[in-house]
Design brief:
The complex is a heterotrimer. By secondary structure, chain A is of the alpha/beta class. Chain A contains 17 helices and eleven strands. Chain C has two domains: about 55 residues, no CATH class; about 210 residues, MetI-like fold. Helices cover about 80% and strands about 0% of the residues of chain C. The longest helix of chain C is centred in the C-terminal third of the chain and has 35 residues. Chain C is globular. Chain C starts with 7 loop residues before the first helix and ends with a helix. Classes of the chains: A alpha/beta, B mainly alpha, C mainly alpha.
Chain lengths: ~425, ~325, ~280
């Protein structure tokens, strides 16, 4: 009879559903498998050469540790930092080795209990690395190791500069403004900025703040969230003036920093803009974009690329030799297997770091690996780093996501012609009050 | 049946042909609740409870992890209501509600009226029109994100059609981004509206229009006085769904513009996820969510009172 | 006098029929063009697209689509989307029809409250519940598993389902129930043997709606499943598009493959979907 058959069918479906549901609730990604330890590793190197490089590192580690399986995955930078890592950490599973930018962000994660304290295991590495490890430490304990650190500056197209008749790289803000003028007269987009991702625009304010505020004020602000010094408002005023001179590309409010040829990095790489204020990972980014554009796996950062430090500002109170910088590192989650720390140490080893330097994708930090740096621009960055009196970490990383997010929003509003320099500081104070 | 569907309010009307059974014994009552129980449990646990919890969290300064111990009363609400970004987000939602009703509605009705006749390939047309609705907002959003960049396919097409100069940056220009969003939303949901209207038109007897035509009524008069009123219940259902959907808009915005540029396309939902999940401010995000709910509730209640009342009052009661 | 006077509008239409076809063509064209573009775009390389955004593939390149089908993440996401959608649909239909059955046909204390409770659910945006759900599910240890998405989806789909099913179920004549009682079956038997088969069209409608909604869901899987390698397809597509943003052609290919299941399903079920909606509307 049809109804009995359908009834049996319903029951069967229902039973199957119940069983599947039950099985699925126990099912979580990652974890151990036939006695092998799995390490889930997330980083932001979605393009070459980093993508292949980390895969090689993972494979080498696996070869040395036959009972370990390394699952390495690259994700887009902003999504990784803002969504993927925080969400995954909150679930308490499924992520072992992850990219770590340090300072305030790290402090927030440590407070939530997400990060493994590795002070004991990596004491020798910490000694070797020296001061550069500081952003990856909280309250004297080490929670991660950097693999990349550098300072920010203007990456520029030497050919386009020559075309506009600019003979020397700007060393002061006035000279920079002149250069912008010359480029506009030569019908060249002076500066590309990826304001769509917010932080590239914010870095302008950070640099102005760096040059306007004394190192003591900056260090104090990082600890106590005290933004009462008027220098923070001065920074906004300087920025407003700079924006008013219209040095940026059209549609900068929606341009991304690194995604494709239309990004600010892409524009510089393809010769569509003359300058970009960006960190030391930029050549690597540009190489990856060019590879995809041309389809050639051999495409490298462009020949015309040059670098100069963010110009000094006459009459400003900040230390003219101070630099804004930051880096990347890795951390292990609190629930990661001990092999995670070994992987981190391997990444930090002189051998791997030297090869990292050879890639031209960043500036390695382990002493002895500088020999690998082949890119003359990166060598310049390294010199700039070594000769700066004080390196301030990216402000949004330094202040953590709550204050940093509010700060970036305020700065981008300024770029969009809304809000004022005072509003930025107000927003930062209000955000800090909620902590 | 239409009226029953539309009267999605507190009273469950009596179906005329069915006398309802009162379970005469305890076992009957048990059976009733055995049937309704599972649905009620799941619903209460995973819809009602979270909503209540959201209300609770909204009074705390909480990051979702630490103890729930920083009670701050209505501070989160004050902060949200005084934040110009959130105010703009509300405006964006309400604007989309209004635009959908004023633009998509009449357009759908008009097109349905035009298409409501024997056409060759009618089924094919209806199927194809419905396709955007079936796609996820993510896929739709991504497709348009790939179509709209400067000098991309859309711009190339516009150039080919004769627009030679610089075109605005559809997604990047704060002045245009919102309108671009609305156009994409229309693309996605107009087909659904047309199909719904077409279905409603099936219930409009041709004879009425014919009789009116004999009496000398023009096409427009026929539509206005006969077709549209009979289409009323359908229009009201569609409008309700459209309003609720517009208020909850998230996926499309997140993919297409992520609320940008400079918050030009932020909606209440993207704002909530941004703060509540993105920045770990669960208490604040919950307050925003509750505000969203209250706004939806008020609009729905007003809708029920002023719009659906007419269906309840003197409408034609169709049999089941 | 003609006995069959044509509609004034119809007379106009006969003259304007080509106009109507034109309108229909334009509508269909605008509707389908983006979809077609995305699908065709997957057959090009990024270089081709940058050189000529609106052009035709030249030559036709299969690598991008091959890349999608050989991407293990894609299959995992596809499988996850399928499991989630099927189980959500099964759960929604089953629980929904059971609840709608008693609401529609029996009078009992609390029935109005129950129905109002469910209809009020239409007003609860998923967004309101998402943050507390996250905390709840983490406490239950379900976060990261597919159940974390399935159960809330069932819960949120219940209001629409019940609202659509109640009129359907009420329409089944009381006489049938009486006859079944006389034959000796109890209410449960009536439910299984008579009511369910008769309400099949309504069940299909709500089932299809639930399936499509689940397949396309983004917010819930985004926040509750997180890890793109094990998430559902919409989440996976989005992450692919940003991780490989430089590879425009690849993103187009992935996006169009992500469209296929929904389109296929729709083609097979379109009569039901469109018909079901029509039925719900006109009664």
């Amino acid at each position: 009879m049809m109804n009995t058959r359908s009834m049996r069918k319903y029951l069967a479906v229902g039973a199957a559903a119940a069983v599947t549901l039950g099985a699925l609730s126990g099912c979580t990604p990652g974890g151990d498998d036939d006695g092998k330890t799995t390490i889930t590793w997330w980083h932001n190197g979605t393009g070459e050469p980093l993508l292949g490089f980390w895969e090689d590192v993972a494979a080498e580690f696996e070869a040395d540790h036959p009972d370990v399986d390394v699952v390495v995955q690259a994700y887009q930078n902003e999504e990784l930092q803002r969504t993927l890592i925080p969400n995954q950490l909150r679930t308490g599973a499924g992520l072992d080795l992850f990219q770590q930018w340090g300072a305030g962000e790290l402090a927030a994660q440590v407070e939530a209990g997400y990060v493994m304290d590795i002070s004991d295991q990596v004491s020798s590495e910490v000694d070797a690395l020296g001061g550069v490890v500081a952003p990856w430490q909280v309250d004297g304990k080490t929670y991660g190791l950097p693999f990349n650190f550098g300072i920010e500056g203007f990456w520029y197209n030497k050919d386009l500069f020559a075309q506009a008749g600019i003979t020397e790289t700007p060393t002061t803000l006035d000279e920079l403004n002149d250069a912008v003028q010359s480029l506009k007269e030569a019908d060249i987009t002076p500066i590309a900025v990826g304001a769509g991702d917010k932080w590239p625009a914010a870095h302008y304010w950070y640099n102005f703040a760096l040059k306007s505020c004394s190192p003591e004020v900056l260090q104090e602000a990082q600890v106590s969230y005290d933004f009462s010094d008027p220098c923070f408002v001065d920074a906004g005023d300087l920025l407003e003036e700079f924006i008013a001179s219209e040095p940026f590309q059209e549609g900068f409010l929606a341009t991304s920093a690194q995604q494709g040829a239309g990004s600010s990095a892409g524009m510089l790489a393809t010769g569509n803009a003359a300058m970009e204020l960006m960190g030391h990972w930029n050549p690597g980014q540009m190489g990856g974009i060019l590879q995809e554009e041309t389809g050639s796996a051999e495409a490298t950062p462009p020949e015309f690329l040059g670098w100069f430090n963010f110009p000094a500002i006459d009459g400003a109170q900040g230390d003219p030799t101070a630099a804004l910088g930051g880096g990347d590192g890795f951390s292990c989650s609190a629930w990661a297997p001990p092999e995670c720390v070994e992987l981190m140490q391997y990444i930090s080893s002189v051998d791997v770091q030297t090869r990292f330097g050879e890639l031209g994708a960043g500036v390695p930090v382990t002493p002895g690996s500088e020999a690998g740096i082949a890119d003359p621009n990166l060598q310049q960055v390294l010199e700039g780093l070594q000769s700066s009196s004080y390196v301030q970490l990216w402000l949004d990383t330094a202040y953590g996501p709550t204050v940093g997010g509010a700060m970036n929003d305020g700065i981008v509003a300024l770029f969009g012609g809304q809000g004022s320099s005072k509003d930025i500081v107000e927003a930062m104070k209000n955000a800090a009050a909620t902590l | 049946m239409v009226d029953t569907l539309v009267k999605a309010g507190p009273a469950v009307s009596a179906g005329p042909a069915l006398a309802r059974r009162r379970p005469r014994d305890a076992r009957g009552a048990l059976l009733i609740w055995a049937f309704a129980g599972p649905a009620l449990l799941v619903y209460a646990g995973f819809v009602l409870l979270p909503v209540v919890l959201a209300a609770v969290y909204s009074f705390f300064n909480w990051n979702g992890l630490s103890e729930l111990d920083r009670f701050i009363g209505f501070d989160n609400y004050v902060r949200a209501i005084t934040d110009p970004v959130f105010q703009n987000a509300i405006v964006h939602n309400l604007a989309i509600v209004a635009l959908s009703l004023l633009v998509q509605g009449p357009l759908a009705i008009l097109l349905a009226l035009l298409l409501n006749r024997p056409l060759r390939g009618r089924t094919l047309i209806r199927t194809l029109i419905f396709v955007p609705y079936v796609l996820s907002e993510v896929v739709a959003g991504l497709s348009f994100k790939l179509l709209l960049p400067p000098d991309g396919p859309v711009d190339s097409l516009l150039t080919a059609l004769g627009w030679a100069g610089d075109k605005p940056n559809w997604l990047a220009d704060p002045d245009f981004a919102f309108w671009t969003l609305f156009v994409v939303l229309t693309w996605k949901y107009l087909g659904f509206a047309i199909i719904l209207m077409l279905a409603g038109l099936q219930g409009v007897p041709e004879e009425l229009g014919e009789a009116a035509a004999i009496d000398g009524a023009s096409w427009w008069q026929i539509q206005r006085h006969i077709t549209l009123p009979l289409l009323g219940p359908t229009i009201r259902i569609w409008a309700f769904l459209s309003v609720i959907g517009s208020l909850q808009l998230f996926d499309m915005v997140r993919i297409l513009t992520n609320g940008g540029p400079v918050n030009a396309t932020a909606t209440m939902a993207t704002y909530m996820v941004d703060y509540g999940n993105g920045r770990g401010q669960v208490g604040y995000g919950s307050a925003v969510a509750v505000i969203l709910f209250v706004i939806s509730l008020v609009i729905a209640l007003l809708y029920q009172r002023f719009v659906l009342r007419r269906d309840l009052a003197g409408a034609i009661t169709r049999g089941t | 006098m003609t006995t069959h006077a044509p509609l004034a509008g119809r007379r106009k239409v006969d003259a304007g029929l080509p106009f109507v076809y034109l309108v229909a063509l334009v509508i269909v064209g605008v509707t389908i063009a983006p979809v077609v573009y995305v699908v065709i775009g997957g057959f090009r390389t990024t270089g081709q697209i940058n050189a000529d955004p609106g052009g035709w593939p030249d030559p036709w390149v299969l690598d991008k689509y091959a890349g999608v089908f050989s991407n293990p993440n894609f299959w995992t996401q596809f499988l996850n989307s399928s499991i989630v959608a099927l189980l959500t649909t099964a759960g929604v239909v089953l629980l929904g029809v059971m609840a709608a059955f008693v609401i529609a046909r029996y009078s009992f204390r609390g029935r109005n409250v129950l129905f109002s409770l469910f209809t009020a659910g239409l007003l609860f945006p998923l967004t309101v519940a998402v943050l507390p759900l996250f905390t709840m599910l983490r406490g239950l240890g379900l976060l990261g598993s597919l159940a974390a998405v399935i159960i809330p989806q069932i819960a949120f789909a219940l209001p629409t389902t019940i609202i659509i099913l109640v009129p359907f179920l009420r329409a089944i004549p009381a006489e049938l129930e009486d006859a079944a009682m006389i034959d000796g079956t109890n209410r449960f038997g009536f439910f299984w043997r008579v009511l369910l088969p008769l309400s099949w069209p309504g069940l299909i409608t709500v089932g299809v709606l639930a399936f499509v909604a689940s397949w396309n869901a983004y917010l819930l899987p985004l926040l509750l499943l997180g890890n793109p390698a094990t998430a559902t397809l919409p989440v996976g597509v989005q992450y692919f598009s940003t991780a490989y943003s430089q590879d425009t052609a690849g993103v187009l290919a992935f996006t169009s493959v992500a469209m296929i299941p929904a389109l296929l399903f729709f083609t097979l079920a379109q009569r039901r979907i469109v018909g079901g909606l029509s039925g719900a509307v006109k009664g």
